[in-house]
Amino acid sequence: ACDAMITVGGCDKSVPGALLPLLRTNAVGLTMFGGAAMFGECPKDMHNAQYREQIGRLDPGKVMESIGAYSNGIIDLEDLDKIERCGLPGSGTCAAMFTACSMACAVEAMGMSLPGGTGHVAISPEKEADCRDS
Fold first, then answer.
1. pLDDT for position 126
2. Taking a C-beta distance cutoff of 8 angstroms, is the pair 31, 8 a contact?
3. In sequence order, what DSSP letters do the residues of 72-129 get, joined into one string?
4. What is the pTM of this model?
């Protein structure tokens, strides 16, 4: 038995999974979202500079688009490799409003996590403060 519980989720499977113990046991507690990864920066040494300017900051969607650009001969394999390596620097979930971030927003809206914490990236002073505040 416990007096209270704090759970942590970070992907589209673990966000609801972290919420379930609180709901099933009727425990006092809250859940935290681990946070999104920071956006990546497109490598400056790409062969196709025009494509580099076109895509700008990298997120998971831009990385997926780049796979298509490689398939269509717009960029070469070396440029694709550089984009994939720079796409999501550091820890965190996909830096876009995909399932994990959407679920974390819903959990926050239900009052099961601290207000405002969902919007903080994983490696930030704000996320560190969320951990302390929890």
1. 94
2. yes
3. TTSS-HHHHHHHHHHSS-SSSB-SSSSHHHHHHHHHHHTTSS-TTGGGSBSSSHHHHH
4. 0.73
